[in-house]
């Protein structure tokens, strides 16, 4: 029998390297950033100010990168350049101490990562492999990163975690170089800038922008303060990392078996369920009598809600927007979500300083309830099979 020669381009190995190491780098930076900054002596208000920079820079960078990707149609080149920037800036972040410098660096690093994320999600849903079998490696990479970053912070020099980002960025570049092309519709003379942004006149898209504004603002704030809540309840830093690891691992079946339910249920149903999960999660954080309840809540709900919404975003955008505008539409949506994160991070920081984290979560539960009500008005066709 003749052996088939291994070809790296389009191979499953390329996708494993892409998603594991891209999300590993993201996980190293985002999972422990709040603890790292408070460990440097930053107040909660200063920490929230620094973290909010990622969203401010993302407002500009995400839609611009999405538009460039739809126009140039060279996602691997675009992603490679941005990942190289992430690696270099992460090393600089490790030696920075000034609050404003940290703010600028965080904004640039997370702006680049956030701009890559919509492209990577589109790649996962457009390649030769089923979405769940590809995207699952990103979840595993993020989970490993959260655990490892917390261990490094506790037992060695915390700055080492940012050197890891530089290394994983290089490996992720090698992975992206081997992925398949994203499908686009044939270009024609009618593909003007006005048509590229025609989705901005679609009522259901605008409604989903508002829904995303609420969900992602609350979710980003939760990602920042849930590790601190666990610390305040007496959970050691390394144990917090373990909790974050398993909370991410628990979402693996959601991604792996996404083909069983994501294309079956409507965007309206899935969005409503996600907001219900968020509402219950925030109430439990607000009234948790001890660390055990908070840990159980983080394990069962923290990562699942955010991951489910990322898939919902891809599903709804693909159901509303033509293929040549998908990256642009996701970029605009993510930029709007970034504005929400800016407002929520800064308001949340000052609110926690004035009251407590539990009060913050009670307010966030109200936002989740509002999002649930708005999701009842979503009307999007459920005809495209994105996850099967």
UniProtKB/TrEMBL annotation:
Location in the cell: Cell inner membrane
rRNA-binding recorded as keyword: no
Keyword terms: Cell inner membrane, Cell membrane, Membrane, Transmembrane, Transmembrane helix, Transport
Chain ranges of the Major facilitator superfamily (MFS) profile domain: 11-383
Transmembrane segments: 12-37, 49-68, 77-96, 102-120, 132-154, 160-178, 199-218, 238-257, 269-288, 294-314, 326-347, 359-378
Bilayer topology: Multi-pass membrane protein
InterPro entries in the cross-refs: MFS_assoc_dom, MFS_dom, MFS_trans_sf
PROSITE patterns: MFS
Name of protein: MFS transporter
Species the sequence originates in: Anaeromassilibacillus senegalensis
């Amino acid at each position: 029998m003749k052996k088939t020669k291994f070809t790296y381009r389009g191979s499953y190995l390329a996708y494993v390297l892409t998603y594991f190491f891209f999300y590993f780098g993201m996980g190293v930076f985002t999972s422990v950033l709040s603890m790292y900054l408070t460990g440097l002596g930053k107040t909660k208000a200063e920490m929230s100010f620094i973290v909010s920079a990622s969203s401010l820079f993302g407002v500009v960078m995400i839609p611009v990168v999405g538009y460039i990707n739809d126009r140039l149609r060279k996602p691997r080149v675009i992603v490679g350049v941005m990942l190289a920037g992430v690696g270099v800036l992460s090393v600089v972040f490790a030696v920075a101490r000034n609050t404003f410098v940290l703010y600028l660096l965080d904004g640039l690093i997370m702006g680049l990562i956030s701009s890559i994320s919509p492209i990577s999600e589109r790649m996962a849903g457009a390649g030769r492999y089923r979405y769940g079998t590809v995207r699952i490696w990103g979840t595993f990479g993020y989970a490993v990163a959260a655990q490892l970053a917390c261990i490094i912070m506790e037992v060695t020099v915390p700055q080492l975690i940012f050197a890891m980002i530089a290394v994983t960025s290089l490996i992720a570049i090698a992975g992206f170089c081997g992925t398949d092309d994203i499908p686009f519709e044939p270009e024609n003379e009618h593909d003007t800038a006005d048509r590229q942004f025609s989705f901005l006149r679609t009522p259901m898209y605008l409604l989903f922008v508002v829904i995303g504004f609420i969900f992602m603002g609350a979710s980003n704030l939760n990602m920042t303060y849930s590790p601190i809540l666990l610390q305040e309840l007496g959970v050691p830093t390394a144990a917090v990392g373990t909790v974050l690891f398993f909370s991410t691992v628990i979402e693996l079946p959601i991604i792996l078996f996404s083909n069983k339910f994501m294309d079956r249920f409507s965007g309206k149903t899935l969005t409503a369920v996600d907001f219900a999960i968020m509402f219950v999660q925030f109430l439990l954080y607000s009234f948790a009598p001890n660390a055990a309840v908070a840990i159980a809540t983080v394990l069962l709900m923290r990562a699942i809600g955010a991951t489910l919404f990322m898939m919902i975003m891809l599903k709804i955008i693909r159901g509303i927007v033509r293929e040549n505008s998908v990256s642009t539409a996701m970029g605009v949506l993510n930029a709007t979500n970034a504005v929400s994160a800016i407002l929520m991070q800064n308001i949340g920081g000052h609110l926690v300083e004035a009251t407590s984290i539990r009060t913050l979560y009670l307010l966030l539960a109200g936002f989740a309830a509002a999002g649930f009500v708005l999701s009842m008005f979503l009307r999007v066709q459920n005809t495209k099979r994105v996850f099967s």
